[in-house]
Amino acid sequence: MTEPLPPSQRKLGTGMMILAWVAGLLLAAYWFSSVEERQRNPNQRPASSQLGNAVEVRLEPNRQGHYLLSGQINRKAVTLLVDTGASFVAVPAALADELGLPRGRQFMVDTANGTAEGYATRLQTLQLGDILLHDVEAGIVPGMAGEEVLLGMSALRQLDFRSQGGDLLLRQYQ
Q1: pTM (2 decimals)?
Q2: Is residue 153 packed enough to be buried (19+ CB in 10 Å), middle (13-18) or exposed (0-12)?
Q3: Which contacts of 16-24 are long-range, i.e. CB under 8 A and separated by 24 or more positions?
Q4: Please, which residues bridge with residue 91 across strands?
Q5: Longest Cα–Cα distance in the chain
Q6: Which residues cross the membrane (predicted)?
Q7: Residues 79, 2: Cα–Cα separation, whole Å
Q8: 62 lies in the same domain as 95
């Protein structure tokens, strides 16, 4: 017959079991959050291809049918939402401050929530996969919620874009 463990060893065993459960729950939460983020933004690493004298980036829609992608503004990571209804690239004010974007002339902008003030700025570089745009007109919009940058027509007009089989193809000619 085996002798029962002393109380100090039982406490250690119980503590180790609790620690293992907590670690397992944290790992599961991390895994589920990354799955959720991939569903929200299926283009975290947009697929790029070279087609003769053009670079093409293929974007998949998320579950809501929106085209989100991870990109860069002035070599800093951002999340972009393709918005063909936006006249320019619109950057939320808090994100613009993080990116160090200068505020230029003030102007009024019409948004889904009404009229708001904005500030003109220019993006030295805007990267979408292997597509690199230079000196892009943009606006800093203080009333804009969230951290997603609206990828508007000031950038999109420099590209050919079309829908194919549900995906959005962006093409830049060199």
Answers
A1: 0.77
A2: middle
A3: none
A4: 140
A5: 85
A6: 12-32
A7: 61
A8: yes
